């Protein structure tokens, strides 16, 4: 039974015998919405939340009916990052926790053939900011901030934050932001290329859902190949990029969606893509 069928079969948040307490899953057609539901703790990540995300993302990536995934959070804070009480009292090896419990979440998003869109309200701090930035697309409320607060705890950035910042801010600005643990407001994030859009708070969820709906109507094979290509192209030479584009283009060329797009062009109508 797919996650689609599981979500339709029960009103409780139980998927494949996985009781969900830290996240909510809602599926509407080809769109899956994940919501962090630990607002009393500012949606800080504890072991249970990490495991629930791993389990749900595995099911999402196995479900071919889902095309786009939306990530939101309850309350006034997207995520305060790691649960510091757990970190202080229950963690003996932070390296192992990052590699064994967090990394599968981030890799599931980056390797997925779905498009992930994060909608950030309030503060996204620490690895919570890293999670938002790991999504393919990011929309921030106008009052939202990304807060790399690691230095305040005597820690370095994690969750791929250093990689994200250096790619978008450059070495010097990334160093400054991380050394001084500066919160970056939504408009600055837009200027730096850390977010795609900034909207008013009350428009955050409608804007994210509208974007997800639009993308879910697009040509899935081309979207999947584009995500794969753009994640690798900056490591390629121009020649290698040209070859990779040609190879992926051939796969798109043989898809039903290309045939539909071509017919729609000549018939002067909007295409009705099937995702095949």
Automatic annotation (TrEMBL):
One Gene Ontology MF term: isomerase activity
CDD domains: crotonase-like
Keywords of the record: Isomerase, Lyase, Membrane, Transmembrane, Transmembrane helix
Highest taxon above the source species: Bacteria
A family per Pfam: ECH_1
GO biological process: fatty acid beta-oxidation
Transmembrane spans: 115-140, 146-166
InterPro entries according to UniProt: ClpP/crotonase-like_dom_sf, Enoyl-CoA_hydra/iso, Enoyl-CoA_hydra_C
Listed PANTHER family: 1,2-EPOXYPHENYLACETYL-COA ISOMERASE, ENOYL-COA HYDRATASE-RELATED
Recorded family membership: Belongs to the enoyl-CoA hydratase/isomerase family.
UniProt protein name: Enoyl-CoA hydratase/isomerase family protein
Species, as recorded: Vibrio sinensis
